[in-house]
Amino acid sequence: MKYADLVNRLQGDRTSAWDIHRAATHAAARGEDVIVLSVGDPEFPTPAPIVERAISALHEGDTHYTHVAGRDNLREAIAAEHRTDTGRPVTKANVFVCAGAQNGLFASSLCLCGAGDEVVVPEPMYLTYEAAVRASGATLVTVPVDAANAFHLDCEALKAAVTARTRAIFFATPCNPTGVVMPREHLEQIAALAREHDLWVVSDEVYADLAFERDHTSIASLEGMACRTLTIGSFSKSYAMAGWRLGWVIGPEEAIGHLGRLALCMLYGLPGFVQQAGLAALDNRRSVIEQMRELYRRRRDTVFQRLNAVDTLNCLLPEAGMFIMIDIRGTGQSTYDFTWQLFREKGVSLLDASLFGATASGFVRLGLVVDEPRLIEACDRIADFVRQPD
Q1: Number of domains, the chain
Q2: Is 265 in the same domain as 179?
Q3: pLDDT at 142
Q4: How many CB atoms within 10 Å of residue 91?
Q5: What whole-number distance in Å separates Cα of residue 78 and Cα of residue 96?
Q6: 55 and 136 within one domain
Q7: Are the C-beta atoms of residues 79 and 92 closer than 8 Å to each other?
Q8: Quick check: 146 and 175 in contact, CB under 8 A?
Q9: Does the UniProt entry include the keyword Transferase (predicted)?
């Protein structure tokens, strides 16, 4: 039997990045002593007030269909937070509630792009961007971001990548995998480029609440950008709700309407009890996010101090998020060999960052997703692995 060409467009080399994570989780399920640092899902549970709200909703019978774009009260709560954060007008009509950021990215790509279009994306990029863009029929155009510049954007290279066929610019700030937070001056240059060429912008801001030193700026808050920007957010990282599959897209009302029609065909709305959990998360936003940010900052500093002291390793200090990039080129190994040998010999799973883009070749990504004693144990295992004789 034959399958549609779409099936082939949704797969590629980037999807093989998860092979080591699957192997690690299977080993852990067998009871092996494995430290899984290959995915952004922390070991601690969702905060209790969020869980309790969902349980109460289930007991109250909140198990029926909901509005396909999300319940009004959740959409208004998300809009209110973004009015506060950006100072720009946002109403519930500008908010689409989706099944996590990846669903939002995929739906946005289908709504904005089509065959013959080009989408410009700085690289390294999150693994599913390629599939989301290709699913729409558009062509992905990557812009290398130099590791020697700590993976910060080369704005001139971005400008040079724009052609008459360019339809949109996709990017993440803060970035997964690099932890880079785009400075306002870079966002201003992207905004000027989008206005000049009448481009859409899709801004993935999933890690916005986990910025450490540099302030996060949303590009949609800049002059003339709210009407051409789709901003993607999620409860997964800031509230430890990865398994709840709850996120949002903020954009022009017409675009939100198109996303709703896609949802009608694909998901027909999210569970009501999950949306009530989202409301509880926003009710407790300040305290929860402050705790999360400080926890990841401490973990970041612990790993950086320990691994950066290893002669053949060089860590980049992330400005945000729950990952740290490690330059392993000094070991003389490829990232593929390094990650798989480390897993097999020491029971630590990291992700080969080169699959996020060629510009990340020579780097691996470590997730700050276990408690500090376990992170220290992982660092010790990595150091032992690197220092062992050939």
Answers
A1: 2
A2: yes
A3: 95
A4: 12
A5: 10
A6: yes
A7: yes
A8: no
A9: yes
Encode 329-343: b = buried (16+ Cβ within 10 Å), e = exposed.
bebebebeebbbebb
In this model, does residue 241 exceed pLDDT 80? yes
223: left (phi over 0), alpha (psi -120 to 50) or beta: beta
Domain that holds residue 260: 48-283
The contacts of residue 279 (CB under 8 Å, 6+ apart) are 53, 73, 74, 77
Q: What is the dihedral of CA 111, 112, 115, 120, to 10 degrees?
A: -140
pTM over 0.85? The answer is yes
Residues 116 and 253 in one domain: yes
Last residue of a domain, one of 252, 283, 314: 283
User: Residue 357 sits in a domain of what CATH number?
Assistant: 3.90.1150.10
Structure tokens at 24: 């690690």
Q: What is the pLDDT of residues 305-360, one digit of tens each?
A: 999 999 999 999 999 999 999 999 999 999 999 999 999 999 999 999 998 988 99
The secondary structure of 327-366 as a DSSP string is: E-GGGT--HHHHHHHHHHHH-EE-EEGGGG-GGGTTEEEE
- Do 123 and 255 belong to one domain? yes
**For 255-309, what is each residue's pLDDT tens digit?**
999 999 988 888 889 999 999 999 999 999 999 999 999 999 999 999 999 999 9
Choosing from 258, 283, 308, the residue where a domain stops is 283
How confident is the model over 1-29, as pLDDT tens digits? 887 777 777 766 666 677 999 999 999 99
